[in-house]
Amino acid sequence: MGHFTELQTNDGFLRFNAYVAQPEGTPKGGIVVLQEIFGVNAHIRDVADRYAAEGYLVVAPATFDRVRTGVELGYTEEDMATGFDLKKQVEALPAPCVMDDIAAAITHASHAGKVGIVGFCWGGLLSWRSACQFSALSAAVTYYGGGMTLEPDIGRSPLCPVLSHFGTQDQFIPADSIEAFKKAHSDVEVHTYETGHGFNCDQRGAYNEAAATLARERTLAFFKQHLAA
Asked: Phi and psi for 4 in degrees, rounded to 5?
């Protein structure tokens, strides 16, 4: 359903890769899908394809491209170490860095109408930052966004409606920080699930089918509500 293409940014970083999935017929709107630390791998492409099957034009930018292109990792300890290192390298770059890549993805998705964004883990954090920075977004969804429940990111203010999914048994996101986020952001719709980190990914041992299904249903309803023409 999808294919890789190149997008242009505005900050002098010439071009970067993005996976684009087209729906059948006229799109209902656009969705930007932000990767975990494992690249735009088979799981992220599947997520994009599934949103496209729901009628959206979907863009999944390769947010590691500024430091390494063609990243597609699995879920071994070695893959995780590589992903964390690449994330660290990207976040050490001068601003706006990856946020400019996300802005370009939003612009591309906007050809289909209103744009929503959804991200997982590191992508969840970037989705939160995007919601607080880009007025072009009409909705944002975060899945277990690492760091968004802590300073300084908890202090950001969203510019669009936000839906956040967390696991109460997440070893990377303390439960008390989720509660602090909920108190700080009564404007954000927060749902918790009795499961751990990465529960949406059906390619890892952390997958929780019941939680993933319910979170997807809530996400689709949220996008339908906020991206409708």
From this structure: -90, 145
How far is 122 from 39, CA to CA, in rounded Å?
11
Which tokens is 190 given? Answer: 């927060």
CA 33 – CA 151 distance, rounded (Å): 24
Question: What's the number of domains the chain is made of?
Answer: 1
Task: Give the residue numbers spanning the domain of 26.
Answer: 2-227
What is the C-alpha to C-alpha distance for residues 162 and 142, in angstroms, rounded to an integer? 8
Q: What share of the chain is helix, strand, coil (3-state, %, to 5)?
A: 35, 20, 40
CATH number at residue 151: 3.40.50.1820
User: What amino acid positions are annotated as catalytic residues?
Assistant: 121, 170, 197
Three-state DSSP class for residue 116: strand
Q: Output the six-digit token pair for 220.
A: 């689709």
pTM: 0.97
What is the residue-wise DSSP string for 168-219? TT-SSS-HHHHHHHHHH-TTSEEEEESS-TTTT-TTSTT--HHHHHHHHHHH
User: Shortest CA distance to 215 belongs to which of 184, 198, 193, 194?
Assistant: 193
Q: What is the pLDDT of residue 229?
A: 64
pLDDT, averaged in runs of 10, over the chain (229 residues): 90 87 96 98 98 98 96 96 97 94 97 98 98 98 97 97 97 96 97 97 94 98 92
Region of 223 on the Ramachandran plot (φ > 0 left; ψ -120 to 50 alpha; else beta): alpha
With beta carbons less than 8 A apart as the criterion, state whether 161 and 222 touch: yes
